[in-house]
Amino acid sequence: MPRLRLASALGLTVLLLTVTGCATAPREPSHATAGAELQARIAPDIVLTLPSPPAYPQTRTLMQAGQIRHGDRQAAFESILALSPDEVEIVITMAGGGLRLSTITWTAAGVRETRSPIAPDSIPVANILADIFIALWPAEAINAALPEGVTLTETADGGRQVRRGDELISEIVPDAANPARRVSRNLAFGYEVTITSRSLD
User: Fold this and answer.
1) pTM
2) pLDDT below 70 — which residues of the chain?
């Protein structure tokens, strides 16, 4: 089984949420996407098409603690990922077991999100799922979802790189001192996430 990998979009989401509003939230809007292909931009001009159903090859649950950095901004977050062939559920909270920011459910019927009102609608759920997909799914599934000319390769040290020819789009780099910790960098969008993952199975 491959070692735990990162879900970098979770960190970017938390960073964006924590700088857009206060944390008092009496209502929780729900959003659903169904019927059309679920697509996400992993770079300004690169679109990935997510599978339906998710088709994760096994059932597992991960707990993650992370730190996201984008320019001079940074934020901490925690998340729980419940993965299976038919359904993926992601719960994102502020670090320290604080405010629940978002719950995302992805099935063959589409994607449903319950989002805290402090979360701006400008953060596409598909991008959160795409980063998780690239981090955790088998390489062959990811390459099938990437457009022509863009490929994912696995490095000798257990990392991953998404490239278009010689152009590096994003990478996941393992921490040699801690196999549970990885650094994810999206060079196209300019953010970096460090995440420590732990299996709950």
Assistant:
1) 0.82
2) 1-36, 97, 118-124
